[in-house]
Amino acid sequence: MRRASFLVLATLTVGLLPVSAGAAGVNVAATPTTTVVSPAKATGWSLVGTLDPQHVYAPNTQLVLYGVQAFNSTYAGFDPKVIPASVQQVVVPYVRIPDGESHIYKLVFHLVTAGTTTTRYQLDAQTPVTVATGDTTLEFTYTTPTYSKGAHWFTWSLGNVNNDIWHFHSCAIFEQTS
């Protein structure tokens, strides 16, 4: 609620009416108007968190990287020519599920791949997705199973199936709200 109030205050605008030729030297201020910028219509998704090499932990999200060859504040690089392909080279985002119920999540990965004209990524055991090399945004939707013990952490694993050189930049995790 506090954020919504801030947004409304931040959008307060005051306009001035132009001075007409007949009112030379007189500035007439218009009645202050308030323009409220409404948030975009609900798409049915709520951001749970965004993970990247600088932000690997938050109360409801975590990130683990395996087989990283290069790492800095903007990306984690994977290179099967340096780290053998036999070593698991994956990005593992976690989300804290608040209860034992099934939830639907959308994971949006920002990746960059070098080399060949196409490459393939796979989330868990889902069918691999073929994409052009270069800057790519991949979206996966996943329904979690119910879990009898209540609140718990749930994880996914994303890797490059072709063993191409690739960089992970970020993963945004959204939960379906409607």
Automatic annotation (TrEMBL):
Alphabetic keyword roster: Signal
Signal peptide limits: 1-23
Signal keyword on record: yes
Protein's UniProt name: Choice-of-anchor C domain-containing protein
